[in-house]
Structures are given as structure tokens and as C-alpha cells.
Design a protein that fits this description.
globular, 5-stranded mixed sheet, 40% strand, single chain
């Protein structure tokens, strides 16, 4: 049921023209879902003849400010009540409908739209007495729930289809898939790093105005493919290789038993890869995929591979649950998509088995590694982690880029983690890849992974967050490459990098490394509160085993506690525990920052290691000697906990400054300490663009900084500028954040 809603001060000049445009939009939605579902979903609609007149002016209901541009959340129910009443007044029975679309007339002004809710009751009362002729009282009760969406009259039909999609099933949860299908958007508008939304050009729940069809995950969940057209594979550590012909989603479902529409590779309950073929319409009546990125494809299409996190995947990365495993274009002949941590390779063998609908042949293989070539001419290398579970070839770089919390080593790499990561901000996760031998290497694929919390053992619970390609590595040289990493919580995270092995490489055994992000602060006075560090204990074996845990490196003046000396785990399973570490004396008794009078070490470098018991029943030799048992190390993690005085920060922002394109920010930390690192962050009115400045406090604990207000187009934006200050990885004070200050410009 579609109802146009108009504010008292914004009325269409020609209602017929508006209704005609709405009819065309919903006709396109009908065609889209009819084609996408192979006629399984039939979108039928009615449009009310007259508009519902709201009891207020336009600004009562809509906020057009740049950071909102939407119907006000508190007015959704009010608008829907007027729409329902108008439909009922015209004789429509809402019990016969599954969805109510309230179209807010904006006279062409853009709003984002709402969808994904339902109700069984429409109610509104303007508070006037019953005897008042101006009283409005709406109370409509339905026999079943009806889904709702709110949109504006000139929205692209793709937005109508997108919001409709939010309503056809329940929304997903963060920790499980449940009945989820179309709840979460996959575009980048509300991400700190919008480039993380890599699949948006191939997904209706992403860049909807370019009309892509759904990706494989949604098409399968919606039941739009018969079971015979989904080739389901379960990844394991046993060698596997097969070639599959995959057909693009055209205007009719494939009936050839030797082809499928989707290859689905399940890695774990949380992580699945979908392989599919996409193609533009050409001269056909196909209404979708007319603008998908095809690069130089000769057949207007090719293969895409998406990573889907449909359950709980602890990678501490702000991302979308559907992302591409390659660059933003279809893959064609010879292209290879990899998850090197699992030795998983997907190769486009033939991108033109059939021209239309396009059929491509792909090879799916795992545990079939490229053989080492001892006579090869080159060898890729990422330096592995050391005894402290850190690699010098992996580091983090936050704003300001290029300066680090830790000093450089002799090879120009920052020591330790480089910088302490900044939560909910873009950090650069950087890796250095070396090559040795007689020649260099070209087109080196580097895959970045993260898992949180890190811990003892490796059960393969890694999620790839980005893939980058180094075009050329000069002989006996190296190259640094990075991906953006936006951690969502301030907790211990393990980062891993793989440079994919290449044909003719001397050895692929040294192509990967990992790094623990391990800096923590024990903040307080007397006594200092214990620091609880979440740690995962993982069983790397396929069988149930006891994982023994030990703790090393605790200095004098510190205490640590592990809740269990060993933990029984099923094969490939894991359990999270809290390891407590804390200083036992007054904070002033420790050496940290400029407090050199303390007698106790201010830094506790603690290692947590894991072991698996290996017992033997065999006997050897003529003497039938019993073989001794041993403990096999399975890795561990490193926590560096430093003493800090509990700090706080106060910030003020001036509306004017000495420069038109900047604002002056000043404030102070408490207790007053000199030379403490302070980060100032400002969000421009568009709600996306950040500007960051790092400064230091003076002897009185005060600081001042000038922040530029120009956006990426070097223009000034008008509206609210949101400013906040942070004590971040300072030498004497614990991390803290100021209250948010808003400056209008």
C-alpha cells in the first residue's frame, strides 16, 4: 500500500504527475524482483488516489541538514498513522497488505529513507479535546503485523527496491544469521572508512541506484535459486581441486545439470565465500546489473568472489558482512582470488564458455600449494615473529601518518607495533615484503588478516580484511604496502600478513608473518585496578585435547593470574578467558615517564604460551624402550602492560581563530603533566570527513592546536563541527577522552 504524505507548507503542484512517477518506480520494483527471483516474488501495489495531509509543516517531519537528510526518527509513527488513515478512508483494508510505504513529498529534496520495521497498530492523537473540531485521533488495529518504509517521491526506483528488500525478512543480528537476509546495508556511507564497502557496486543492499542484483548470499537466502544450482563445498585441510561451470543470473534459471549459479565455500560457521558470475543486460530486457564494473571484459561480465561474515567473526575491524575478495571489477581469464592462510585459490579458467547468459569455468582448490623450487630465481619473504610474538615487518600507523610512538630500527621500520591503534579511526596496517635471489617479483598479492582476541594456538579463525597487489618488487629489494584498518574496540588484536607464493619461487614457507597488538595500561593510584585482558585459548588439532597454559616474564612488583592451568577443548574449538595483570604498589613506586624515582619497573612484558601434551604408546629398539612424552609448543601471545596515572582531559573550541579555514582548540589534562600526547579530532558537517592533529601538553598540562576545516575538495562546509580531545598513549597519563564540543561555522 503506497500513500503520498504532504506537509501543510509543501503540497504537489500536480498530484497526477507525482502518482505517475510513483507508479513507474513501483513497476520497476515489480520487474526487478520478478527477474531476480525467477517469478518467485511478485510485488503488487496500490497507490492511494489522494495525498494524506500531515498536521504540521515540512520541518516538523524532515531534517535536511547534511548529516541527517532523512525523516525524523521520532515522526515515523506519526507519518505512518496519517498514511494508514488515508488508505482506510479510501476503502483499502490494510489487513490485505504486507507493507505500507509512506511517501513523504519533499518537492525533490533528497532524503535517505527508512525501512525494516513493522507494526500492528497505527495511532496518533494531537492532544486536542474531543469537542474540538480540530482534534485528530487515529487508532487503527490490524489483525497481523505489516512492514513499513518511508521514502520521498523522486527517489530512484533502486532505492524503492532497496527499502522493500529491508522488509521482506527479518534483519540480521551481529552475532548470528538467524532468519537474516537483507537487514544490513553493504554500502559505505556510515563507515569511518567508506572504501571498506567493497561489494556495494554488486549488491542491491549497497549501491542501489545503479540497480545491481543481490550477491550470492542473499540470492541463496531468499530461495531464488533451486538447490541444484548451488554447489556447496566445505573447506578443510585435505587437498581438493575441482572445476565448475557457473552461469550468470539471466532472465531464466539454469536447467543444465552440469552448471550452477553459485559455488558456496564454507570455511566456518561464520565465514563463507560465494563465487558467482555477473553480466550486464546488453540488448536483453534484464533490468539489473546495467552498471556493474566490468573492466576490460569482452563479454560484459565475469566472476566475482564475496566474503560473507554471517555469524560471529572476531576480527576487530569495522567492515560490511559482504565484501569482495578482489578489486572492484569482475574477474576474467587467468585472474586468481586467494585466501593464502587457508591455501584456498579460485582461478578463472575460462571466462567465455558461453557468451549469454555468460558461463565461466572456475577452478576451486585448497591444500594444493605451489611446490617450492630450489632452483628458482627469487624468494619472497615476510620476517616471522620473534620470541615476543611480533614481526618487524608488520606495524600500525595512525594519524598523523608517518610519525610513530616507537623509534625506528636500522632498516627504517618502527619498532614494536609502530603506533598504538586509534579505535574508530582509520589506521594503516602496514607490511613489508622482501625479495631475494637473482631477480625480483611482479604482481605480488598481499592478504591482510585480523583476529581478536589473539591468544594461544591457531584454529584458523582468521578473517581476511583486504588484499593488495605490489606491482613490482626489485631484485634484492623490499616494498611496503598497507590496508586501512578501523578497529572497533580497544582490545588486543592479532594481525597477520601473507604474500601469495608464486610459480618459480624458491620457497613459500617464509611468506607470512603475524604481529600482536599488545600495549595496555594499568591506570590508577593506590591501589591500581587489575587489568583484565581477554585471551583466546584455541585447539589447533582436529581432536579433543587439553591445552596447557603458562605465563612468563612478570617482573617484581607485579601480579598476574590465569584462571586455568589447562583447558580441555574439542577439535578446532576455542574458549576465551580473562588474564589479570596489575601492579601491586602505589603508582608512584614505579618508573614510568619522568617519574624516575620509583624503584619498581613500570613495564610488565608478559608472555602467555600454550602447549599440547604428546604421549606415545610405541616402544622402539630391540630393548623395547618406552618413548618419553613431551609438550609441543603451539604459540602464544605477548602483553606489554605499563603503569599510568589515571588522567582526564578538558577541551574548549573557539568559534573563531586567526585563520578563516581553521579553528583554535585548547584545553588541559589532569593531573597536570608536561609532554603528554593529545590527539584532537574534528568531524566536518558531512559526518564523514575527519581532521586530526597531534599535540603535546606544556608544563601546566595545557595544550593548544589549530585544526583545518577544509574538506577533501578544499572547501569549507557550513554547519556543526564536532570536536573531541583524547589523551592517547601518553607517557604518564592513562588514555582518556573529553566531552564532545560542537562548533557552528
Amino acid at each position: 500500500m503506497v500513500v503520498l504524505c504532504q506537509a501543510t507548507d509543501r503540497i504537489p503542484a500536480n498530484l497526477t504527475t507525482v502518482r505517475t512517477a510513483l507508479t513507474q518506480a513501483w513497476n520497476n520494483v515489480h520487474t526487478y524482483y520478478d527477474q531476480a527471483s525467477f517469478s518467485r516474488t511478485n510485488v503488487q501495489f496500490d497507490i492511494a488516489a489522494a495525498a494524506a495531509t500531515l498536521d504540521g509543516v515540512f520541518t516538523d517531519f524532515v531534517d535536511l541538514s547534511p548529516d541527517v537528510q532523512n525523516v525524523k526518527a521520532g515522526q515515523l509513527g506519526r507519518i505512518a498513522a496519517f498514511a494508514a488513515q488515508q488508505a482506510q478512508n479510501e476503502g483499502f483494508n490494510l489487513n490485505n497488505y504486507q507493507m505500507l510505504c509512506s511517501v513523504v513529498f519533499t518537492n525533490g529534496d533528497f532524503i535517505r529513507a527508512w525501512g525494516g520495521t513493522d507494526t500492528q497498530t497505527f495511532s496518533y492523537d494531537n492532544g486536542k479535546p474531543v469537542s474540538d473540531p480540530a482534534r485528530i485521533h487515529i487508532d487503527i488495529q490490524l489483525t497481523q503485523k505489516i512492514n513499513e518504509l518511508w521514502i520521498h517521491e523522486t527517489a530512484n526506483w533502486g532505492r524503492f527496491a532497496h527499502e522493500f528488500g529491508h522488509n521482506i525478512v527479518s534483519a540480521p543480528t551481529a552475532t548470528g544469521d538467524g532468519t537474516a537476509t537483507l537487514g544490513e546495508d553493504v554500502y559505505g556511507s556510515d563507515l569511518v572508512d567508506s572504501s571498506a564497502a567493497t561489494a556495494q557496486d554488486f549488491e542491491l543492499m549497497g549501491n542501489h541506484d545503479s540497480h545491481p542484483i543481490f550477491t550470492g548470499y542473499h540470492l541463496e537466502k531468499l530461495g531464488y535459486y533451486g538447490g541444484a544450482n548451488v554447489r556447496a563445498l566445505d573447506w578443510d585441510r585435505n587437498p581438493h581441486s575441482e572445476e565448475v561451470d557457473i552461469m550468470a543470473h539471466g532472465l531464466s534459471e539454469d536447467s543444465d545439470p552440469n552448471r550452477v549459479h553459485i559455488v558456496k565455500i564454507k570455511v566456518s560457521d561464520a565465514l563463507t565465500y560465494y563465487v558467482e558470475v555477473r553480466q550486464r543486460p546488453g540488448a536483453t530486457a534484464q533490468i539489473f546489473d546495467d552498471s556493474i564494473p566490468i573492466g576490460g571484459s569482452a563479454n560484459q561480465g565475469g566472476v566475482i568472489v564475496t566474503r560473507v561474515i554471517a555469524g560471529e567473526m572476531n576480527n576487530n575491524q569495522q567492515t560490511r558482512f559482504i565484501t569482495l575478495m578482489h578489486d572492484d571489477r569482475v574477474q576474467t581469464d587467468g585472474d586468481i582470488i586467494e585466501d593464502p592462510a587457508r591455501a584456498l585459490r579460485i582461478t578463472v579458467v575460462n571466462d567465455s564458455v558461453q557468451a549469454r547468459p555468460l558461463v565461466c569455468k572456475v577452478r576451486v582448490e585448497w591444500a594444493n600449494t605451489i611446490a617450492n623450487d630450489p632452483s628458482g630465481a627469487f624468494d619472497l619473504n615476510v620476517e616471522p615473529w620473534d620470541g615476543d610474538y611480533q614481526s618487524p615487518d608488520i606495524w600500525v600507523d595512525r594519524d598523523p601518518i608517518g610519525t610513530f610512538d616507537n623509534p625506528m630500527d636500522a632498516q627504517g621500520r618502527p619498532r614494536g607495533n609502530g603506533d598504538k591503534p586509534w579505535v574508530n579511526h582509520i589506521n594503516q596496517f602496514t607490511a613489508r615484503v622482501h625479495v631475494s635471489g637473482a631477480t625480483g617479483a611482479t604482481n605480488v598479492k598481499v592478504t591482510f588478516y585480523a583476529v581478536s582476541p589473539p591468544g594461544v594456538g591457531d584454529n584458523g579463525n582468521w578473517s581476511p580484511i583486504a588484499v593488495k597487489t605490489i606491482a613490482n618488487l626489485p631484485a634484492s629489494g623490499f616494498m611496503d604496502t598497507f590496508c586501512n584498518w578501523v578497529p572497533v574496540v580497544d582490545k588486543h588484536t592479532c594481525l597477520k600478513v601473507f604474500a601469495s607464493q608464486q610459480l618459480g619461487e624458491i620457497s613459500g614457507d617464509n611468506n607470512g608473518a603475524q604481529e600482536n597488538v599488545f600495549d595496555f595500561q594499568a591506570a590508577g593510584g593506590s591501589p591500581t585496578e587489575p587489568l583484565f585482558i581477554r585471551t583466546a585459548i584455541r585447539n589447533p588439532l582436529d581432536e579433543r585435547r587439553a591445552i596447557h597454559v603458562s605465563l612468563r616474564g612478570l617482573p617484581i612488583g607485579w601480579v598476574a593470574q590465569i584462571p586455568h592451568s589447562w583447558i580441555w577443548l574439542d577439535g578446532k574449538s576455542e574458549k576465551e578467558i580473562d588474564i589479570m595483570i596489575w601492579p601491586i604498589a602505589d603508582v608512584n613506586m614505579y618508573q614510568y615517564g619522568k617519574n624516575r624515582e620509583g624503584r619498581l619497573p613500570g613495564l610488565a612484558p608478559v608472555k602467555v604460551a600454550g602447549f599440547i601434551e604428546r604421549s606415545y604408546t610405541e616402544v622402539i629398539g630391540s630393548a623395547q624402550q618406552v618413548v618419553g612424552s613431551r609438550f609441543y609448543p603451539i604459540g602464544g601471545t605477548f602483553y606489554r602492560v605499563g603503569v599510568r596515572k589515571r588522567g582526564s582531559i578538558r577541551l574548549e573550541a573557539e568559534g573563531k581563530s586567526e585563520r578563516k579555514d581553521s579553528i583554535r582548540v585548547q584545553g588541559a589534562v589532569a593531573p597536570a603533566r608536561a609532554d603528554q600526547r593529545v590527539m584532537i579530532d574534528i568531524v566536518l558537517p558531512d559526518g564523514k570527513t575527519h581532521r586530526t592533529v597531534e599535540t603535546r601538553t606544556n608544563a601546566s598540562g595545557q595544550f593548544s592546536a589549530l585544526l583545518k576545516l577544509t574538506d577533501n575538495n578544499k572547501k569549507l562546509q557550513s554547519g556543526p563541527h564536532v570536536v573531541q580531545g583524547f589523551i592517547h598513549n601518553a607517557s604518564e597519563l592513562s588514555d582518556a577522552e573529553s566531552t564532545v564540543v560542537t562548533v557552528m561555522r
